[in-house]
Amino acid sequence: QVQLVESGGGSVQAGGSLRLSCAASGYTYSRYHMGWFRQPPGKEREGVAAIDTDGTGTYADSVKGRFTISRDNAKNTLYLQMNSLKPEDTAMYYCAASGSRAWTLLLPWAYGNWGQGTQVTVSS
Predict the structure, then answer these.
(1) What's the rounded Cα separation, in Å, for the pair 11 and 117?
(2) Mean pLDDT in each 10-residue stretch from start to end of the chain (124 residues)?
């Protein structure tokens, strides 16, 4: 049974940093593409960043240069380093796993397994 558990969310002031983690279990983690998504209050879920099995990342334009996605296949863990946070980054953040070639599109339908989310709140 695939299980994804996010952690590391919290409340920070604008300009601050947070590092999210996602612990994976129940499947061969290294064989799946992984992604981070977020859902602001009252809005649809959107892709933030994704990473290939070999560590190649892709990012939404809104976070390029500020966020860095990485993975540790030995620890079955996905990370999202978030720097220079802005109030508009406030959202519930989810990690997800994809076995689809469409993983780079950063669209929710390409990801079949999801965590429960961790809240990030950025105040101005």
Answers:
(1) 15
(2) 95 98 92 96 96 94 98 96 98 95 88 97 97
